[in-house]
Design a protein that fits this description.
heterodimer; A: alpha/beta; disordered N terminus; B: 9-stranded mixed β-sheet; 23% strand; extended; protein biosynthesis (chain A); eIF3h (chain A); initiation factor (chain A)
């Protein structure tokens, strides 16, 4: 009755835990998209990264600005320089009223080959400091085909727990029902622009009904792109088969070890029977110092998961481009007939 | 009567005859964003323009950042240290981008601008001043570029004049991203490739319809025939390669089969992945 409507004291409010609403959508400003595209295109084919700044509001993560990172050398002293650069940029941006909360980072990729262990490690690093962070992947090679290849990724929570425990054995994965699809979650992107910008863009838009991206999309030759995709796919399959071989080796070792253990156990039992018959103390049935009882560690499945993810990505891309090519070919056919 | 002493006011135009500037859409976005975020008491935003000078003399403006400043009726103060810090930071990422000028919002050039222009001309030999009218005073957003030209009377320097130079506002990158995304205040979903393909094909269809209508109009005499347009159309139609139907069909079918092959391969790969997954994690060690 009246109890629930009484105002809560500050202490009470501060003490109640916030329920973290799940991240549903990432809202990016047009400015950020243009900056990312410019930075990635200028340095392609080298891979570049940058920081995203914005606000975390409820179930929407707003990204309002970004700045690029300089290309890192392997030198030790430049590491400190990198941190200084970041602080300097954030300080300067603060002075012109730009939100300077880090909400994630962006990186460019070639043909979608971004699932690496480094990505996961970077995610874990960021996650320690920021409650919600997102990684935006941009693929400049796909933009030559007229597609805006922008993706927002996040590690799924169950995967993060497993990673922290650093155990990727078969049983743990089965417990959590985690398969390779669950590692990364893709979050839908929304684009927002301020009213001033949209006024300018409406005005400055060229009058022609056909734009540059239409020319890119209608290009008939997609062969080089497909060829490279297939090359990457084949390499990944090789990697996957290597991982499979590692597993097979492990299983073989394990079964061999078990056979050895059984044999040793039999021998012990026979000995014990003999000893009992002779009236002596039976020996224990286990012997931890014997090397054949040493448990063989199971290889981690993280690599194979990542590779599987990678392959799935390539397959998806091939499907997408093939779909586009079908459209173009039929269009060409229709035009010719006319 | 100093008849022989006629001095002529010289407008030296030779150096600026072929100077023009090219602005990338990112710069406009940056400027608008800084204007929206300006502190309450400031009326306009001032900042530095970064870019490069192309070999043919055109100034290519690629990036920009705002510089805090204070302005009053008599004087203008610019935060020079901030300007240098940002410049150093930006150059760490892209050492090829140098200062090419400065920008301010608001229509026209004011008195204070001359001082700032002076400051920037100490950094760069011929800075370009860009004004972006965010107030839309003329009923449209005007973006203008100026350079400073010296007015000399004989040998004496009188004043500097802001002379407008042609500005190229082609938005190639913005077109690539898609104006639909950048024009509206919010877009719910980035379009997928197939949707984009659909839009493109609709545009192509619209263009072809336009051409049909035009040709019909000319044939019926409704519109005066323009020879150059007619030549363009005939060139375009002639650009379709003349292949015999069987050869063309073979070409199309071959390409179709290649794509189908790739699709088949990728489907097999995915099946394989599914199988491998099941085998790897379902196996239990007894």
């Amino acid at each position: 009755m009246a109890a629930s409507s009484a105002p809560r004291s500050f202490l009470q409010v501060a003490a109640t835990e916030e329920v973290v609403s799940p991240l549903r959508v990432v809202q990016i400003e047009g400015l950020v998209i243009l900056k990312i595209i410019k930075h990635c295109k200028e340095f392609s084919p080298a891979l570049v990264t940058g920081q995203l700044l914005g606000l975390d509001v409820g179930s929407v993560l707003e990204v309002t600005n970004c700045f690029p990172f300089p290309i890192r050398e392997e030198d030790e002293e430049i590491e400190a320089d990198g941190a200084n650069y970041q602080l300097e940029m954030m300080r300067c941006l603060r002075e012109v009223n730009v939100d300077n909360n880090t909400v994630g980072w962006y990186q460019s990729t070639i043909l979608g080959s971004y699932q690496t262990v480094e990505l996961i490690e970077t995610f874990m690093n960021y996650q320690e400091n920021i409650r919600r962070c997102v990684c935006i992947i941009y693929d400049p090679s796909r933009s030559n085909q007229g597609v805006l290849a922008l993706k927002a990724l996040k590690l799924s929570d169950s995967f993060m727990e497993l990673y922290r425990a650093n155990s990727f054995t078969g049983e743990k994965l089965r417990e959590k029902n985690l398969s390779w699809v669950d590692i990364f979650e893709e979050i839908p992107i929304k684009v927002s622009n301020s009213a001033l910008i949209s006024a300018f863009m409406t005005e400055l838009e060229a009058d022609t009904p056909v734009t540059q991206c239409d020319y890119d999309r209608l290009q008939l030759s997609s062969n080089p792109y497909m060829e490279r995709n297939m090359e990457f796919l084949i390499e990944c399959m090789d990697d996957l088969s290597m991982e499979q071989q590692k597993f097979q080796y492990h299983y073989r070792n394990l079964s061999r070890q078990q056979a050895q253990q059984q044999a040793w156990l039999q021998k012990r039992r026979a000995e014990n029977m003999a000893r009992k018959a002779a009236g002596e103390e039976p020996l224990p049935e286990e012997d931890p110092t014997n090397p054949i009882f040493k448990p063989i560690p199971e290889p981690s499945r993280l690599e194979s998961f990542l590779i599987t993810n990678q392959i799935a990505n390539y397959c998806n891309q091939i499907n997408g481009v093939a779909g586009q090519s079908f459209n173009r070919l039929y269009l060409m056919k229709a035009l010719h007939d006319n | 009567m100093a008849a022989g002493d006629r001095t002529v006011l010289q407008f030296s135009t030779q150096s600026t005859a072929n100077l023009s500037a090219k602005v990338h859409p990112l710069v406009i976005f940056n400027i608008c964003d800084c204007y929206v975020r300006r502190p309450d008491q400031a009326e306009r935003v001032i900042g530095t323009l970064l870019g490069s000078i192309l070999p043919d003399g055109t100034v290519d403006i690629r990036n920009s950042y705002a510089v805090p400043h204070t302005e009053s009726a008599e004087q203008v103060a610019l935060d020079i240290e901030y300007h240098h810090n940002m410049l150093v930071s930006h150059q760490k990422v892209n050492p090829k981008e140098v200062i090419v000028g400065w920008y301010s919002t608001g229509l026209g050039v004011t008195g204070g601008s001359a001082l700032i222009h002076d400051f920037y001309s100490r950094e760069v030999p011929n800075p370009v001043h860009l004004t972006v009218d965010t107030g839309f005073r003329n009923g449209e957003g005007t973006v203008r570029a100026y350079v400073s030209v010296n007015l000399a009377l004989g040998d004496r320097q009188l004043a500097a004049q802001f002379q407008e130079i042609p500005l190229d506002l082609r938005m190639v990158e913005a077109e690539r991203v898609g104006f639909d995304i950048l024009k509206t205040t919010s877009v719910d979903k980035l379009p997928t490739d197939l949707e984009g393909m659909e839009v493109t094909m609709q545009r192509l269809l619209a263009l072809i319809d336009d051409i049909y209508k035009y040709v019909d109009d000319v044939v019926e005499g409704r519109v005066a025939a323009d020879n150059s347009i007619g030549r363009f159309i005939s060139d375009t139609v002639a650009a379709l390669p003349k292949l015999s139907p069987p050869a063309f069909d073979k070409l199309v079918n071959d390409s179709l089969q290649d794509q189908l092959l790739l699709l088949y391969l990728s489907s097999i790969t995915r099946t394989q992945l599914g199988l491998a997954e099941k085998l790897n994690t379902a196996a239990q060690i007894l």
